[in-house]
Amino acid sequence: MSYQNLLVTEEGPFLTVTINREKALNALNQQTMSDLAQFFGEDLPQRSDVRGVILTGAGDRAFVAGADIKEFTSLEGEGGANMAQRGQDVFFLIERSQVPVVAAIQGFALGGGCELAMACHLRIAGEKARFGQPEVNLGIIPGYGGTQRLIQYIGKTKATELMMTGDMLGAEDALRLGLVNYVVAPGEEIAKAKELLQKIATKGPRAIAKVIEAVNAYFQYDVDGFANEVSGFGDVTKTEDFKEGAQAFVEKRAANFTGK
Ligand code: COA
Q: How far is the CA of 27 from the centre of ligand 1 (A)?
């Protein structure tokens, strides 16, 4: 695992991925998108021992302040559509990851940064976190899934307003609207993310993967979510973890899940 703009650290069954462009407020340039694609598309799927990923940004000012605007000047022709398609593809890798991905958001999560946080399964915001889709300030629209996922999380009314005005939301408003799971004191974002992942890691990993898949199915127009639930339920009832979970309940002890 080698990346130019990501730092990956390991602690037990958890990986922390830090977008490491602090001077540019961790803006997502194309190299960073390639690094994310490599991590989520190639390296993480080979790590069956990993039970969760924390995604964060370097420094305390920003999670990610958006796509790298300095690279926009070279966009022409079909370059914009290609860039958006590539970004969406990378973020789908995150959303469809088999292990839970928690965003730890300490500062600005704007544009592509808000979109990146929304592609994660859970979001922890520090009190100073600020969210927004300010693309209209540049004469463009969100391109990495923001027009769709923002509505999924906070509803059409407020999402439309935020995308039309470019206004930012503070952490408490993000919590109230359902954009984040928890708000914590500054500096506590990663600790809270770990606490959540530790709880999830006590469950059957294959069941967690099926929860992710079924939740995603709700938002895929070409997938029947109820049918996905039936097949997912059928799959997990064939696992050793299911036998262990039921047996542990009967024996009044904690289950020892192995992912098999
Ligand atoms: N792309 C490239 N560089 C960015 C960036 C982005 N999205 N966001 C911030 N930076 C860079 C700045 O250019 C600056 O670099 P410099 O010191 O080389 O000039 C550095 O990060 C610090 O940003 P700065 O604007 O000086 O900090 P600030 O505290 O005054 O403002 C923001 C912070 C986040 C409000 C402001 O940087 C901003 O509006 N960024 C763009 C957000 C955006 O529109 N995102 C969506 C893009 S589609």
A: 8
